[in-house]
Amino acid sequence: MKAQLTFHKVRLPLLRPFTTSFGTQTDRTGYLLRLESDGITAYSECVTEEEPGYSYEDNHTAIHVIRSFLAGMVADVPEPGAFLQRASWIKGHNMAKASLEMLLWDYHGRASGMPLSKMMGGSKGYADAGVSIGMSDTDSMVRTVGESVDKGYRRIKVKIEKGREYEILSAVRNAYPGITLSADANTDYTLKDIELLKRIDRFDLEYIEQPLGHDDLLDHSKLAKDLSTPLCLDESINSSHRAEQAFEIDACKVINIKPGRVSGLTESLNIASVCSRHGGHCWVGGMLETGVGRSYNIALASTKLIDYPGDTSPNERYFARDIVKNPFRMSDGRIKPNTGPGTGIDVDDRFLRTVTSESGSLP
Ligand code: OSB
Ligand code: MG
């Protein structure tokens, strides 16, 4: 039987608005994909957003690329690696590619009865959970940091932007001198701002994430020489090849791995190996995913090469109600990956319908 590929465009309101240096998000709006073949149903999430603020991809480019080019490549339900080969002539569009690559991981996991965390090899059985705190007024941010520490998160990351970095980080560090703390600038600085960045070198951050341009490596390697705080790259790393280059020129010591940004789980695992070979560190980031995308992130974060706590928080931090019947829970700052086949999620089809604005078959 030919596989049936369908999409659902969903919108889930966030419990709190999420502000980064490039904008504010009040909901998670994106595409879920569903693949059905031989009585098996798999789900994945495309992590693009309505606007191209984090990446050049957005929901509109993603559904175009999926519909016009990628959907036809999964009709015979290939293994993820075979799909990546077929899609390799298409430049970029990693988030669109990842949504299908991960769908195939889930499908084959469900078909063989294997949970994702086992398929990837070397699961620790848990993911160390961290939290990414958006910007708001500094007092509220300090309060949110405190609540997050009380909940048991193993690493706190705060968003910063040019001109507010010192105020935010000095307030948080003074209030919580002992916590594992990092800051994410989402590309808001250039090398001209080096004095601003040197002033936050004193706050004993585990790393500063993506201070410079979204496609830059060279300026990061120059900046790294002037700071004692390690740099972490997010936006700049879109493949294991880029990761190799980043380590080769000392542009970073740490990488935030987001499966969507790097075309899926295969390349995520390759990047984790590159980090380990170069004596670097890595962790799994997030894109405020629904319970569907989250299940992939948590499984990946439970693998042994992921050695730092990630932006892998339980579903309840984001949404009043999620579209899975089995949301993740955090205990002692850790989240256990699902043990059912594939992602192991149980999608709440009834609730999914109520948050779907559009659905249909692909191509
Ligand atoms: O830079 O890591 C980022 C969310 C949207 C876009 C970019 C980023 C983020 C986050 C959120 O930091 C992490 C999460 O899912 O909790
Ligand atoms: Mg980031």
What does this protein look like?
The chain has 363 residues and is an alpha/beta fold. The chain folds into two domains: 4-113 and 346-362, Enolase-like, N-terminal domain (Enolase-like, domain 1); 117-335, Enolase-like C-terminal domain (TIM Barrel), CATH 3.20.20.120. It contains twelve helices and 14 strands. Strand 2 and strand 3 (40-45) form a beta hairpin. Helix 1 packs across helix 3 and helix 5 (138-151) packs across helix 6. The protein is globular. The two termini are 17 Å apart. The chain binds 2-succinylbenzoate and magnesium ion (MG). The site of magnesium ion (MG) has 7 residues, from loops.
What key attributes describe this structure?
single chain, 363 residues, alpha/beta, Enolase-like, domain 1, TIM Barrel, 2 domains, 7-stranded parallel sheet, 4-stranded antiparallel sheet, 12 helices, 14 strands, 34% helix, binds 2-succinylbenzoate, binds magnesium ion
How do the strands and helices of this protein lay out in sequence?
Blueprint: E1 4-20, E2 23-37, E3 40-45, H1 59-70, H2 80-87, H3 94-112, H4 116-119, E4 127-128, E5 130-133, H5 138-151, E6 155-159, H6 165-175, E7 181-184, H7 194-199, E8 208-209, H8 218-226, E9 231-233, H9 240-248, E10 254-257, H10 265-277, E11 281-284, H11 291-301, E12 330-331, E13 334-335, H12 349-354, E14 356-362
Parallel strand pairs: 5-6, 6-7, 7-8, 8-9, 9-10, 10-11
Antiparallel strand pairs: 1-2, 1-14, 2-3, 4-13, 12-13
The structure holds 2-succinylbenzoate and magnesium ion.
Magnesium ion binds next to loops.
